[in-house]
Amino acid sequence: MRAWRVHELGEPADVLTLDDVDEPVAGPGQVVIDIEAASVNFPDLLQCRGEYQVKPPLPFVVGSEIGGRIAAVGEGVSDFAIGQRVCALAGSGGLAERASAAAMTTFAIPDELSTAAATALPVNYQTVWFALVTRAALQQGETLLVHAGAGGVGSGAIQVGRALGARVIATAGGPDKVAVCQKLGADVAIDYNTEDFVAAVKDATGGAGADVIFDPVGGDVFDRSRKAIAFDGRLLVIGFTSGRIPDIPANHVLLKNYSVVGVHWGAYVGRDPGSLARNHVELVRLVESGDVDPLVGAEFAFADAAAALTALGTRRTVGKVVVRPGG
Fold it and tell me: Exposure of 132 by Cβ count < 10 A (0-12 exposed, 13-18 middle, 19+ buried)?
């Protein structure tokens, strides 16, 4: 079968190669999936460059979020049937025609979702739920500020935040992305290219600031978010798509009595693997109620996998960027 692999580190267009590799085998507790859609995330781009905290040994197949149909089940697996539509965390890499996955990280796709949209659930929406519920304990009636609201995790945070009963303020770059945030359900959408989001948040909250801030950007956005947070608020550190890891002045944290909260979902799952299934149940409930409908912003043919990752790195995409192995 074919798979996109990284043999040396660098930009995807330079280092991704389409290789013929052995077919995955369903070992004990595993399934093999015929991949119909594989989504890419910013950490995939960082892994290509060797800049992510998790560094798989070379060569490796890029990608982790997949959707497709069960092709084989291993010993001890009784919850899945051949041909069943599922989404999963790909154990052997997602940008391939087939992948193995642990049965415990594989989930049936709700009838309400397309396979492409379902690829957002295993990482993006799990991260969002972990951030807003487990780490921030977001409460009904609180104000949630979501940065990069039109992106993969940002779009999910808007939807889940609304479902949890929060008032959602979102930032995005440019009128088209602002319109996406509004369509997703943001109560207030701010174009950070033309507006000072700190002033806009203060204005929208009567000067109080946001109770919870969801920040996948870091850098200057994090620095300015400290000025937009409410007393006793929670500033969620999701990632650093800006490229700069900010410093935290402890005196400011003390004076405004807010918390800076780390959100390393992967590490948490490693300590509590059962959280995947528990959180998936909650996410499916939101899908079935219509509160969650993952946004697929772009789909690429399998031959254009490097272009998909490059597009993600330009920060011009919205929602999920999906690669179709059959395309």
Answer: buried
- Count CB-CB contacts under 10 A for residue 254: 9
Mean residue pLDDT of the chain comes to 95
Residues in contact with 276: Cβ distance below 8 Å, sequence separation at least 6, in sequence order: 104, 105, 126, 269
Burial per residue of 152-177, b for 16 or more beta-carbon CB atoms within 10 angstroms, e otherwise: bbbbbbbbbbbbbebbbbbbbbeeeb
Say which range, 31-40, 67-76, 305-314, has the weakest mean pLDDT. Answer: 305-314
The answer to whether the pTM exceeds 0.90 is yes
Mean per-residue pLDDT, 60-78: 96
Q: From residue 18, how far is each of 25, 97, 311, 325 by CA, in Å?
A: 20, 11, 19, 12
The stretch 46-69 carries a mean pLDDT of 92
Domains, the chain, ranges and CATH? Answer: 2-120+295-324 (3.90.180.10), 124-266 (3.40.50.720)
Distance CA 96, CA 267 (A): 25
What is the rounded CA–CA span in Å between residue 105 and residue 274? 9
Q: What is the mean pLDDT of residues 206-222?
A: 97
Span 281-301, average pLDDT: 96
Q: Which helix (H) or strand (E) holds 323?
A: strand 320-324
Residue 232 tokens read as 């006793």
- Look up residue 303 and give its two tokens: 């031959």
